[in-house]
Amino acid sequence: MKWVGAALLAASFLLPPFFAGDFYVNLASQILIAAIFALSLNLLVGFGGMTSLGHASYLGVAAYISALLTSRYGVGHGAAAIISITGTTAMAAFFGVIALRATGLGFLMITLALSQVLWGLAYRMSDVTNGDNGIAGLTRPTPFGISLDSATSFYWFALIMASFAFFMMTTFVSSSFGSSLKGVRDQPRRMAALGFNPWMIRWITFIYAGFWGGISGLLYVYYNKYIHPTSLSTTSSAEALLGVIAGGSGTLGGPVVGAALVLLLKNYASAYIERWNMLLGLVFLFIVLVMPTGIVPGLSRLLAGLGRGPR
Amino acid sequence: MNPLTSDLALEIVNLNKAFGGLVVTQNVSLAMRPGERRLIIGPNGAGKTTLFNQISGDMRPSSGTIKLFGTDVTQLAPYKRVHFGLSRTYQIITLFTGDTLEHNVTLGLLGLLPSRWQVWRPLSFYGDLARESRRILDTVGLLHLAAHPVSDIAYGEKRRVELAMALAQKPRVLLLDEPLAGLSNTERSTVKSLIASIPRETTVVMIEHDMDTALDLAETVTLLNYGRVIVDGDRDAVIADERTREVYLGA
What we know:
The structure holds 2 protein chains of 2 kinds. Chain A is mainly α. Chain A has one domain: ABC transporter involved in vitamin B12 uptake, BtuC (Orthogonal Bundle), CATH 1.10.3470. Chain A contains 15 helices and no strands. By secondary structure, chain B is of the alpha/beta class.
């Protein structure tokens, strides 16, 4: 049953370029990028028990570094990507040292504060970041000489990256380190009493999540060819967090489903309803009330119940 | 770890701990030989668990020294002490309730292995860990429940999982905090024989209120009251001591 679901999901990702128009293919690309971002946040929230409200920092900073290097300093896309990801990962290592002085609500507040600092910088340091105007006129990379300018070619690129990211993060949480991480989430004191170093386990995860947040930021800026301080805002962090929780935190498929839901609502609902945020809120309210652990765990429980037949 | 040469497995010198004005450990000095079976008794609030928490590193003492096989571990983080051969169980059951019994014990094994840092290979590929974990569950009589989540099993069985996790680490010093608490008579005798069968390489320090069972397991007894050592010595001498009757057994 689980494998059928996974196969259907995989197939649904392979089909869009063959059937759908550019609008939908682009929408699918955006879902893939949001999914990588949500998956990286889920490492912290779902598997590490570290609820972060500042994860947009990694997306935004990676995007800004790449945008500045390629547009202003004429650095090639390859080198810019490497510098951007290295810089973002180093930033995660530094932020992790600060944020992991606390757990729970304290951790959340520190991540929020740090991301607000970056957001403020992006707005105010207008001689560097171009402030509220954002940085426009960016280009997409041409890996192996292949142009990514068409909707379809970018979709394939995003799909390869997202599959790789999904595989890497799935491997991470199923490894013995992943077990250590889940153990520290559930019983940190016991884990220490068994010989595990809770702080180090959290810190490594924080850095790894920052790394994949950075990757999603690169794809984000490639897709949009534009970057604005909004992508560093608390709203971006909170939207991703909502997606993770709605889809099912601590599951592998949940963040993908949640990210897709947020984007679809945003794109469809905003076309018909002006206050689409209200609709988003109502949908989340419904999910939290009906399936408190998220869509994916909720549906699998429902399917398991149906499989057993009527009671 | 390294074979350290010391006559004592665990040595506590002049340990003090106070929460503000409340003194919970007062000038406690204890010495335990390798392989010794020590029972720590005392009325509620005597500071027994607080003493354990300081030995395991969950709490920092206000002053004093704790040595494991001659190494001063007073300033070491809890997880580092485990690598010196210290393991403990909790009075309040502290297990991974959503995970299977096998996974719980596997975590006990993993805690001492370098592969706990390994991020590539799925844990399920470690056949030897799973086998060892099931072997240990067998020794505590829970092999038939290995695939069940902890939340499914009975209280008495959880107590045995607590023990299995600690035993998986083959500790040189094992701290047992009320391993018999809340158990039925049958379960008591099961756990009693389990504790009795712990190999002599392990020094066992146990807090327990059930004197009938615990005294059979102990060679030496320490009586604590108001955070102070009242009597300390061979089992029979401590039991016979007048102060023990006064404080604990009730006149």
